[in-house]
Write a structure and sequence with these properties.
The complex is a heterodimer of chains A (412) and B (301).
Chain A lengths: L2 E5 L9 H23 L1 H4 L10 H13 L2 H11 L6 H25 L8 H4 L6 H28 L13 H39 L17 H27 L6 H28 L11 H22 L1 H5 L1 H25 L14 H24 L4 E5 L13
Helix pairs in contact in A: 1-14, 3-5, 3-13, 3-14, 4-5, 4-8, 4-9, 5-7, 5-14, 7-8, 8-9, 9-10, 9-13, 10-11, 11-13
Chain B lengths: L1 H20 L19 E6 L8 H9 L29 E5 L9 E5 L8 H5 L5 E3 L5 E3 L9 H5 L6 E2 L9 E2 L5 H5 L5 H5 L5 E5 H14 L19 E4 L19 H10 L4 H27 L1
Parallel strand pairs in B: 1-9
Antiparallel strand pairs in B: 1-8, 2-3, 4-5, 6-7
Helix pairs in contact in B: 1-9
Classes of the chains: A mainly alpha (412), B alpha+beta (301).
Chain lengths: 412, 301
Amino acid sequence: MSEYMKPVPLPRKYFTPTVIILGLIALVGIIFILARLIFGIGAVTNLSNQYPWGIWIGIDVAAGVALAAGGFTTAALGHIMHKEEYHLITRPALLTASLGYTFVASSVALDLGRYYYIWHPLIMWNGNSVLFEVGMCVMIYLMVLYIEFLPIVTERFIGRVNLPGFLGKFNNPIDKLLRMLDKGLNKTMFVFIIAGVVLSCLHQSSLGTLMVIAGPKMHPLWQTPILPLLFLLSAVSVGFPMVIFESVITSKSFGLKPETNILSGLGRMVAPLLFIYLSFKIGDMVIRKTFVYLTEFNTASVMFVIEIVLGIVLPLRLFMSPSIRKSPLGLSIAAFLVIFGVFLNRMNNFIVAYTPPYQFTSYFPSIGEISVTAGFIALEILLFRAFVMIFPIVSIPQAASSKTKFSVRGVR
Amino acid sequence: MTNQSRRDFLKTSALLGAGITGLSSKPAKAAPKNILDENRMGVLVDTTVCIGCRKCEWACKNAHYLPTQPLESYDDRSVFKNMRRPDDKSLTVVNEYPAKELNSFPVNVKVQCMHCDKPACVSACIVGAFSKEENGSVIWDGDKCIGCRYCMVACPFQVPAFEFEKALQPEIRKCDFCFERTKVGRMPACIEICPMEVLTYGKREDLVELAHHKISLYPEKYYNHVLGEYEVGGTSWLYLASRDFSELQFPKLGNSPAPGVSEAIQHGIFAYFIPPIALYALLGGVMWLNKNRKSEEGEQL
């Protein structure tokens, strides 16, 4: 082999027309966030006593957590299964997961009536509460993700700490600290990587258990005791498509050649995973005989069919085709459909399926809610771009002589 | 090679799934505060006697220091045109359902928190702000609440209400069975004021007996069903009516406790932390094996 892949910061011009548009979307979101903090939840959202949870929980949190699953699935594949060829996608996936979970936590905080009490679950425990478990797991996992990210920071800054002005005298101590961190993490990283996968399995599934307690308030097409299993399976199946989609977009945006070989390797694993998910979903429907609800024509049945056909069956077929797996365009379309399907599934579970016994108005998200959700997504993309430019995240081909083979710290 | 990797991955993910979903259907552990007292109190609501004077609404607002119109304004019966629900400004409301036949009366139904024996809100609350008290009340602790509104998602009767318009210290509001009053030996405000004795306050056990006695005495007057005796595992508030409760807009609910399934799943996944630890050990083992295999391969090369 004449060249090696090595993650490096990608110095590019930050501002492009797309970035400016995203910046505006983020700005509008921030304005509505301020409005929510000053005037209360009622002023900005369409939530009511009938619909206590809206898209901030259904999309920002539930779909956000699911779509950040790339972090733990690639960690499992690259580090636990030790497939070295996939190491170069673990960093972008880790960054997406870290940013994703950061925004999940922010959305939760924003949705809490008393956001300043967000620390209460740390000391006030209720072991019966599914939400308590989800909250604790997400909190710990967020810490684990940050720790997993630290080696990237140390790699970037060891020997390069150069603070401006009078802060300059801290250069040496900070450098020492980074070296210490690097040494310590090098030996212990495997603990965190396994913990990350375990925590993910726990809260990805528990996120499904969350709606079980709503009982008959939830449409029977979605309300099932195996919701936790379905949530876990769908999270595992959306992990790689998310990595594929994001990798293709990143390559395009930074003018790099897409890693088609690695991505189609990932794509090969998606079909079996989707198939398992689909069989449980259909099996559950057959066992509980909920297919009778599909004969009715209403929002619930239409959304359910879209979720299954466009979100599972079609991408399953696409990922089975070798020719589609070989083309970046085919891969990204198939991956997008899986992402769309899981996104829709979370929204269906938390919003469409929720039918309170006493309904005065139906729920549709307000401009404020949509703006905040869009703003968070825009902000996440902007931060992703900034991080990719500052830190060694994306791997690009290096001349063989330039450096020894890249290895991930701690999990050699 | 790639075939191998796929099989490995599937093998592991299958194991992983089995670990996660190895749910035992062990009965859910009740939180210490949630042990049901035999002598817990309840209320029997005889909707056949209610005249819809709405004095209970007024008394409730007074007892909870909520702003209210003067008592006389409650004579206005036009409010019955629309179905109302308890909210953050009124913890109980009375609704009216028109008479079915010419010579019969409309049915008035007082609505408030049912004070379940196995409350979904108590089980759901992330910080344990809700508790089922010895005297049967399900009450909310404002010092703990973080305003996540999961109680509202969980409640099968759609009772807890939230102060959406408040930016700071919004509260979850619902009937607290006049906990502050009963603590000092006073009756709940609505029961004290009711001029028609619609509401009978007493030990829940006795009330169930009384309800069935009433039905057996006047089988032509009552629909043979005590709502709340078994619904979602039993509630402290019980209802009698002259017609099927579904005609009075009570939600159709089963007899199994609302938090039952979710607690069983939850405690299955977390049974003594064995499943998570087992999964951790399993993944650790897989990681170690793969690492060794790789380094051996490396040496051979």
